[in-house]
Amino acid sequence: MAEKLRLLVTGLNGVVGRALRPALEERYELSALSRSGVEGLPDERVFKADIADIESLYPAMKGVDVVLNLAADGGQSSLNGMDAPWEDMLHNNIIGAYNVCEVAKRSGVSRVILASSGATANGYEWEEPYRSLVSTEDVPIPDSWDMVNEFSEPKPITLYGVTKLFGEDLGRYYALTSDMSVINLRISSCGPEDKAGPGRGQANWSSYRDLQQLTIKCIEAPPELKFDIFWATSDNRKLFRDNSHAKEVLGYAPQDGVK
């Protein structure tokens, strides 16, 4: 029987972590790093640390194959959402992301997956036709529209989105300058409940099982995939955050979508 891949997840207690955990726990030797600890895992695979404290990360990275970095401030799990204080986002999304990548490199981790966000491109929703696609009002839907893909101009309208773009460029740096592979997953509308919310959720929802599938495909992608960015979205009728790149490169096949 093949040995299970050893996966470390930061921020497993968050909204996305809870959505992913059942699939990850079933498939991998899962360990977790967080400030408050994680219930339900063996003690030797639970590490209490602050990702902004670089020295505290080394024990968790020892012997790990892949790191999935979900720890952040400004997302679904944050008290103030995307309006989280700058100091908190600096602490977690900038310094923390660097520390995770740097310690992973020094520890011989083969791949880091960084949770990016739809916030890297939320500015498109200030423009038509995307404004109509995410509207909570009963407005006419255009017949067609240009998709926003991984290579479209970034349009952050929050500092949270800016910090996630930093993470994407940080990933480019480590992929180019080390043996490590870095994949950025632009996690879209994924909330505490596995259903699409109004407005943006109708366009860019990601179901739990679609997000699980795509995350597993990122974890298990061939080593030759040194760097990439993928939109994590289901096949929704109003979709404009383009998931075709993930389909082409990884064989992602969404099972869900808002019709």
Any idea what the CATH superfamily is called? NAD(P)-binding Rossmann-like Domain
The count of domains is: 1
Global shape: globular
Head-to-tail CA distance between termini: 42 Å
Oligomerization status of the protein chains = single chain
CA-based gyration radius: 18 Å
CATH architecture: 3-Layer(aba) Sandwich
Residue runs with pLDDT of under 50 for 5 or more positions:
none
Mean pLDDT: 96
SSE string, helices as H and strands as E: EHEEHEHEHHEHHEH
CATH topology: Rossmann fold
**Strand order, largest beta sheet:** 3-2-1-4-5-6-7
What is the CATH class designation?
Alpha Beta
Counting helices, strands and paired strands, the structural category is alpha/beta
Continuous helix count:
8
What composes the largest sheet? 7 strands, parallel
Give the beta-strand count.
7
Care to describe what's here?
The protein has 259 residues and is an alpha/beta fold. It has a single domain, classed as NAD(P)-binding Rossmann-like Domain (Rossmann fold, 3-Layer(aba) Sandwich), CATH 3.40.50. It has eight helices and seven strands. It has helices spanning 15-27, 58-61, 86-106, 130-133, 159-177, 200-204, 208-219, 244-250; strands spanning 6-10, 29-34, 46-48, 66-69, 111-117, 181-187, 227-232. Strands 3-2-1-4-5-6-7 form a seven-stranded parallel sheet, sandwiched between helices. Helix 1 (15-27) crosses helix 7. The model has no long low-confidence stretch (mean pLDDT 96).
